[in-house]
Amino acid sequence: MKYKAATIKDIAQALHLSTSTVSRALRDSHEISAATKQLVLDHAAKLNYHPNPIALSLKEKKSGSIGVIVSEIANSFFSQTINGIESVANEKGYTVIISQSHESFEKEVRTLHYLASRSIDGLLISVSSATKDLTQLKALHQYGFPIVFFDRIVEDIATHKVMVDNFQGAYNATMHLLAEGYQRIACITNSAHLSITRERVAGYVAALEKHGISSHPSLIKYCFHGGMLLDEVTAAVNQLMKAKPRPDAIFTTSDKLTTGCMRALKKAGVAIPGEIALTGFSNSELIELLHAPITVVRQPAFEMGRVATELLLQLIESKRPVKDFDTRILQTELITAPEVPAKKKGRK
């Protein structure tokens, strides 16, 4: 549906006041009585015009720009996604404004306010690991502002969503480790409430159960900051290394966790795959250059960005309210590491 922010005219019509009176009341002018100011402020809050800075700053005029919020641009997955976004946006004449949440809810909210003040026409967002309060996003959506979620989606906001088959990707990676003879497989994953975490952990557990192996909660380590803090990943790895018996393999569920786990294992002097195997989600091309490359789950990041942008532009340019929304699920690819000796089958 087309976005239409609440305006001073809307408040004036509802309260049977002039627009100039409403404008002065909102500016706290001494020309307006305290009673009228309170009446205007109460109705403005009801319409989400004020004090909500998003509704206050958004304009009806089209700007020809779209906003993008990701956790970190340096993340290889998100950098490739942004390339996909820009490939479509630039072709259609839109400017892309990119911001990073750094896995902070507060930063994400400030970014939403900033992008809204820039009069963007729509938003592409992969929510932060700390985002549980959806008030700001729901407020935007309630006013018809075009939003498309990608990668880390929000289930209870009805709009377009683009993601990969997280369950299948994790299932395939874990099955690969099992086929190589590893049986005590640990999992290092993102914040527990994220959609990608739930789906990828479910795939990992399903693969274990397929082989008659029960998943142990002690072998699943949640990293709230999703690999942004190396100390957090290192702590998870150290806990697993102290477990008795120790895991013989680790499955990681995101780019930053995979590289962070590799760094932590190297620091601990644990050889990959000699002492412990590692498989995880990663779109980094550097994995292929390592002395001991690992098997990774590769996501179609560029395609995800392209598809998400096409769907967003459909919302922005639609002449009629959009009521039917798509959830696009893209497939991952398991990239097997070359010349890595398999473990003896059935090792306990």
UniProtKB/TrEMBL annotation:
Pfam families for this protein: LacI (PF00356), Peripla_BP_1 (PF00532)
Highest taxon of the lineage: Bacteria
InterPro entries according to UniProt: HTH_LacI (IPR000843), Lambda_DNA-bd_dom_sf (IPR010982), Peripla_BP/Lac1_sug-bd_dom (IPR001761), Peripla_BP_I (IPR028082)
SUPFAM superfamilies the UniProt entry points to: lambda repressor-like DNA-binding domains, Periplasmic binding protein-like I
SMART domains on file: HTH_LACI
PANTHER family attached to this UniProt entry: HTH-TYPE TRANSCRIPTIONAL REGULATOR GALS, LACI-RELATED TRANSCRIPTIONAL REPRESSOR
Organism the protein comes from: Chitinophaga hostae
GO MF entry, a single one: DNA binding
Lineage start: Bacteria, Pseudomonadati, Bacteroidota, Chitinophagia, Chitinophagales
Keyword annotations: DNA-binding, Transcription, Transcription regulation
Domain spans labelled HTH lacI-type: 6-60
Protein name: LacI family DNA-binding transcriptional regulator
